[in-house]
Amino acid sequence: MKTTQPSMPTLEELQHLMQTAIQHPQRVRGTFHNIINTSYGIGADQRLAIYQRGYILRLLECMRAEYPQLIKAFSADWFDTMAQHYLASHPSSSTNLNDLGARFPDFLQQDRPDKQESVQDDAFDFLISLATLERFRTETSRGKGSENADFNQFSLLETQPLDSLKIELAPNLRLLKSPFQLVDYLTQLNQSDNANNSSPELIKQTQHIAICRENYRTQYFIVKPWQFDLLVLLQHNTNLNDVLQQINQQYADSAIYGFAPFFLLQAASKGCIRGVCLVTNK
Question: Where are the CATH 3.90.930.50 domain residues in the chain?
């Protein structure tokens, strides 16, 4: 009696199987025994595992490239362990590897062992804050910035009343309120790495950071609390007069209105602002 040979999958089916096998090995275990030949004593699952391991290693390389300061501050072994847990729970779903580590800071927040405690460990706050800063740096460096803006328009900040202006921030501007002096820490970390000195000092003190890009150079711009809140509000409302009124009410400091033009000019020079124009009456 003849045995019926299983039909071979089509090319499209085989491509889908291969993708599933690499990204979700547990779903297709044993499926390839009739598709991949055993040779040199290596079975189908073993041969497939070569590609599965290579895929994970490639994703780990991308994660390491995005979070180099996190690795310096902690350790490569710790980072690889956390990154593998992250990749297992958040498989890559985008064709763009730039999106791979986007949810890593949120993953660290959810995975922290003290999240149910009334008093949380500063070490985990630092870890998450640093991861968020690195992710924001990635988004700023790869996003649409202010490089093609007409810089003549920024003269309106000096020649026109502020209540007549609209401000368009650079789309790649990111804002982070950190409970630590992160920028100072990273400066010391890189200096100690180069000079082989002692570990940098981490100071627990709130720091307001604008992550911006000027002439394709990503940088950290430390701002004051009212300046930070001004930029946050401008991300949602381009009318400068409305925003300044909210800031004045929040801080009860009339001097802010006088300082605002100088700060906005400085922010524009840092690449935080993409456009300035006059408010048009409808």
Answer: 145-282
Q: State how far the Cα of 88 lies from the Cα of 2, in Å rounded to an integer.
A: 44
pLDDT in tens, 28-65: 666 666 666 666 667 767 777 777 788 889 999 999 99
Structure tokens at 21: 């096998």
Is 51 strand, coil or helix? helix
Minimal CA–CA distance to 203: which of 178, 223, 181?
Answer: 181
Q: Per DSSP, what are the bridge partners of residue 276?
A: 167
Q: What pTM was computed for the model? A: 0.85
The candidate with the shortest Cα–Cα distance to 269, out of 212, 223, 191, is 212
Q: Which CATH code, of 3.10.20.30, 3.90.930.50, 3.30.450.40, 3.40.50.300, is assigned to 145-282?
A: 3.90.930.50
Query: In the beta sheet, which residues pair with residue 209?
Result: 176, 222
pLDDT of residue 49: 76
